[in-house]
Amino acid sequence: PRLRPRWAPAPPSGLPCAVVISRATVRACRQEFREYYLSKVATDLAKQVEGTLSPCVAMQFQGGGVRGGALTQIVPYASVRCADTAVAQVGQKFREVGFLLQGDPSRRILKGHVWPISRFPLDKAFSLIPCGMSFTTYPLKPGVTLEMWNRTYSDKIVRLLANELGILWLMSAVDEGAEGGPMGIVSALYSCEEAARSVQPKIGEVLALMGAIELLRGLPYERTVGP
Questions:
Q1: What is the dihedral of CA 157, 188, 197, 221, to 10 degrees?
Q2: What does the DSSP 8-state code read for residue 159?
Q3: How many beta carbons lie within 10 A of that of residue 10, not counting itself?
Q4: Which H or E run contains 37?
Q5: pLDDT tens digits for 163-172?
Q6: pLDDT digits over 8-54, tens only?
Q7: List of residues 6+ apart from 109 with CB closer than 8 A
């Protein structure tokens, strides 16, 4: 048998976690909000909140200008207990930017998996790393569980996604309490927004290779892409 060279990276493997998904509507001036939020809120959360997994915080911004925009934030924690403990700190940080938000942000704590494909070794700890991010929801058939959904993300599939699509980080969760039935939630980080958008025509083929199509009860409800 062939031996693995010493320099070859180990196959990526998923880590069970609690995923906190926060979504908010921004009033206006996306650039203004981004600069304030990234410098005053996200960095503090990464440093102060205990139990987060690296990367600590993944954020996607959409829209902007006078019409406002949207923020999707994903924070993976080591456990549901850690996520629950952080509620007060996170709530305080969102209140600090309340004047830039329209209404209160939604916040869901779900069990999930993350695949930290890239460890970003060339970036300093707690530094902000520009990237592209996708956020996709998949309606699942009744009875489909997190274990069944994540079983489709084998190491072979994750390596394929990293090598062929350029995915740097991957998150998967299932909202079993979603209206209408369970909902698969998948988010990924790419080197840039254009790379995230280029994946769109290939999603069907990827789902077929994963063997995930038979778990779906419909087409993806939503796929948002942003910086």
A1: 90
A2: H
A3: 7
A4: helix 30-37
A5: 999 999 999 9
A6: 344 446 889 999 999 888 876 566 667 777 777 777 777 778 888 87
A7: 18, 19, 20, 80, 83, 84
Note the pLDDT of residue 227.
66
pLDDT at 69: 80
Looking at residue 135, its amino acid is F
pLDDT at 7: 36
Cα separation, 186 vs 115, in Å, equals: 11
Query: How far apart are the C-alpha atoms of 148 and 143, rounded to whole Å?
Result: 9
171 vs 155: CA distance, rounded Å: 14
pLDDT classification of 5: cutoffs 50, 70, 90? very low
29, amino acid identity:
C
Contact 159, 170 (CB under 8 A): no
Residue 68: which region, alpha, beta or left (left: phi > 0; alpha: psi -120 to 50)? left
| Number of alpha carbons in the 13 Å side-chain half-sphere of residue 190 | 22
First to last CA, the chain: 44
CA distance 46 to 37: 12
Q: How far is CA 172 from CA 29, 47, 90, 116, 210, in A?
A: 31, 24, 22, 12, 14
- What is the predicted pLDDT for the residue at 222? 75
Indicate the angle between helix axes 203-210 and 155-165, nearest 10 degrees.
160
